[in-house]
Specification:
Elements lengths: L2 H18 L4 E5 L9 E4 L10 H23 L12 H14 L4 H18 L1 H14 L1 E3 H7 L1
Antiparallel strand pairs: 1-2, 1-3
Helix pairs in contact: 1-2, 1-5, 2-3, 2-4, 3-4
Length: 150
């Protein structure tokens, strides 16, 4: 599988899950930068991480969606996703959101976010593939373009 397809699927999964969980992306890109092969840019509503536990769990799921999408694209949607599939930034962000959502039991919150992300990516797989295809064609998609493809 080529690097562009992997990066596009990874970023598309973040964007589609964010949109589905009411955290619409401002843009998504597979233009490489030092240390990353792509990025989903959040809108201003997601910059404040002092949300409700439900919102924070949603953001944890968004952070984990990229690794799930990437793994599904590589080996199929019936496989379990190894923790090594998540980039260090995505993994760290998901843990931060899980800890903020449930300070007394962040492990449980993290596991629930994983389940939510896996379900969201699997349910929206067609949309993830359409957004990934759009990214491979243009390298950057605006929020409106992502919505149109979803």
């Amino acid at each position: 599988m080529d690097v562009d397809r992997v990066a596009a699927t990874h970023e598309a999964a973040h964007a589609v899950v964010a949109l589905r969980l009411a955290f619409p992306p401002a843009a998504v890109s597979i233009r490489p930068k030092p240390g990353e092969s792509g990025r989903m840019y959040h809108g201003p509503a997601t910059l404040d991480i002092e949300g409700t536990p439900g919102e924070l769990m949603g953001l944890a799921a968004v952070a984990l969606a990229g690794g799930i999408g990437e793994t599904f694209a590589r080996v199929g949607r019936t496989r379990l996703v190894p923790l090594s599939a998540y980039g260090p930034t995505d993994y760290a962000n998901a843990w931060t959101f899980a800890e903020l959502a449930s300070p007394d039991n962040p492990d449980r919150a993290f596991r629930l976010a994983l389940l939510r992300a896996r379900s969201a990516v699997g349910t929206a797989w067609g949309a993830v593939e359409r957004v990934a295809s759009g990214l491979r064609d243009k390298t950057v998609l605006t929020a409106d373009e992502v919505r149109h493809l979803v």
